[in-house]
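Q: My hope is that you can spare some time for a protein that puzzles me. Underneath my words sits a plain record pairing an amino acid chain with its backbone structure tokens. Those tokens are not coordinates but codes from a learned vocabulary of shapes. Thank you; the sequence and its tokens follow:
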Amino acid sequence: MTENIERQIIEIIATDRIDKPISSMSGKLKRAKPKLAKAVGLQPGDSFEGQRVYARVGTDDVMKARGMRSAINEFAENYPRHGKILDGLIEEQRELSETHLYFGMNDGCRLTADDYLGVMTNLGFTEATAGKLYPELMGTSYKMARKRQEERSILVG
């Protein structure tokens, strides 16, 4: 049983360490896409047809939910007495009970390449692809980890 728990925690740590650089890269990519799209410079109604790519800019009318703060402000304007009560209820802090699994590595211990490669193959990478990605991901992960050496946790309930 102890060995099984150790193996599970090793997998959690390896997953967490792989998640950090991939998540960071994903955030950078998500922020870059709108900037790149605006830089193209096409206006609504414009289109482009190239040798390998195409693009068009269209405007769609969509229904979006009103922002909660906007709705609350409008409600407070129309019903000032009730608006104050609503604001008071929203401002009250609720005490919540959260259960976390805290985890980390013991001093002087390290995860092996096989620990990381196992997580990567579980994600669907072939062994060859995982082997090629491993050094880059670990390099980024180590750089990020140096900035913060703390115990990590996962919300479990």
In short: The longest helix spans residues 2-40. The two ends are 23 Å apart (CA to CA). The beta strands are 47-49, 54-56, 100-103, 152-155. The longest strand covers residues 100-103.
